[in-house]
Amino acid sequence: MTQPGGPSPTGPGSPDPYPSEPGSSGPVPPGPGSSGSLQLLTLFGIPIRVHFTFLFLVVLVGALLAGTGEPAALAVATLLAIFGCLLLHELGHALVARQLGIGTREIVLLPIGGITRFAGIPSGGAELLIAAAGPAVNLAIAIGLALLITALGLPWDLVSESWPAALLVRLVLANALIFGFNMLPAFPMDGGRILRGGLSLVMSEERATQVAAGFGQAIALLLALLALFGPAQNLLLLVIALVVFFGASQEAAYNRTRLMVRGRTAREAMMTRFERLQPQDSLEWATRLFLATHQRCFPVVDAWGRVAGLMDRAAIVDGLAKHGPQVAVLEVMRRQVPAVSPDAPLGEVMRALQVRADLPALVIDGEELLGMIDLDKIMRFNEVTRRLP
Ligand code: ZN
């Protein structure tokens, strides 16, 4: 399972809505959901993180295998190899995205699979290719290993005398399962994105999302019926059905909001009354504003009215811990500023904000700061405007 960009693609050829400020070189802070995860290594310049719940999986599998008399080496090798296959799946997404000009912020491995967070938002044909790349890796591994087992004349046993043979057979099965699961044509699986990417080549992006979401819900109902009444009654299938159903519903609801804000721009929905900071303000002053207002984020604007950076909760808390209250805001602010143009279509701003739901975007015209916008603001705008005649 992956998360290419936000839950939804942008229109064809739309640029990364969050360009980083030129000259900024600070590390990209982890996106939402990567808290509770540990960075293991960096591959192709992409941070690879493992969520702590992955440890539960290790313990669970260990407990299940303890009673079966399974050789410990085989159990460990199986787990590590499947972990490697999940990582290759995500790298498949990330490297194809890179070929298409979309960077990857990070890969997070969870017990249920992995999440690849992109810096941009793929659409149409690009979404199709990027989504297909992950399952294609697992299909290739399964076919390759099956050919190897046949060529070497090894037995097709999950438990055999020589454990490397059993490991190969298990990996064929695991990769076939990862492939099958991800190819379910429903959000949030890769299959759902492949379907939408394909459909959006022949119809509008909104219509493609609607059709794909409806298809996903139908698949979910079918899976639920199968789980409850079919020959293969099982709980896991029911859980998958629920995940798929809610994934598809969320996508459909999100799509409806997007249709409602069609033709609207960032300028119409942005907030214009908010506190600003100056680069030479002390962190103490920033902390006071943080406590005294509802604002989660404070633009840092210099004497010439140019946006120099952004102070958010993390910058304030980390700054206090590392430097104390007397340090200047300039020293601790974020220099990567999420920015949108005032004439950016609201639907596109929504998609950008979904990728980084923890930060609002600044509405900047040339160098001048006009306002700030976040998802809550867009929802409010939507609630009000749809009730106006
Ligand atoms: Zn995937």
Write a structural description:
- By secondary structure, the protein is α/β, with parallel strands linked by helices.
- The protein has three domains: 182 residues, no CATH class; 76 residues; 121 residues, CBS-domain.
- The chain is 52% helix and 13% strand.
- It has a four-stranded mixed sheet with strand order 1-2-3-4. A three-stranded mixed sheet has the order 7-8-9.
- The longest helix is centred in the middle third of the chain and has 29 residues.
- The N terminus is likely disordered.
- The structure holds zinc ion.
- The site of zinc ion has 7 residues, from helix 2.
Question: Any key phrases for this structure?
Answer:
13 helices; disordered N terminus; CBS-domain; alpha/beta; three-stranded mixed beta sheet; binds zinc ion; 389 residues; 3 domains; 52% helix
* Helical coverage, percent range: 40-55%
Number of domains: 3
Mean of pLDDT:
80
Helix-strand sequence? EEHHEEHHHHHHHEEHHEHEEH
Weakly predicted, low-confidence segments: 1-33
In short:
By secondary structure, this protein is α/β, with parallel strands linked by helices. The chain has helices at 53-66, 72-99, 124-152, 163-182, 190-199, 205-229, 235-260, 266-269, 283-292, 313-323, 329-332, 346-355, 375-385, and strands at 37-43, 46-51, 104-110, 113-118, 297-301, 307-312, 339-340, 361-365, 368-373.
